[in-house]
Amino acid sequence: MDLFFLGSAIFLTLLMLLPLYRAIVGPTVLDRLIGVNAIGSKTTALLIFIGVLYHRVDMFVDISLAYAMLNFIAVLAASRYFQKRKGLYDEIEHRGS
Prior knowledge:
This protein is mainly alpha-helical. Helix content is 88%, strand content 0%.
């Protein structure tokens, strides 16, 4: 059973490469924020898999919940900042001109 969870964790880690590409390359700030949020969500699930592998699910659930809340607050704060100060859609307008 541990082999199944290990394989699932490795597969989930490989799935993180797609939003990582979007977070790095993304044409707008909004795309980058969505990529970072997707990575954070997958990291929460990955922490649960690690807890199952180490047979300490109770400890890793607490860590993953704290990480999920931190990720949610950070993405909200960053999106609020870019909406007020920089503009979320400015990069699209500059590329078209």
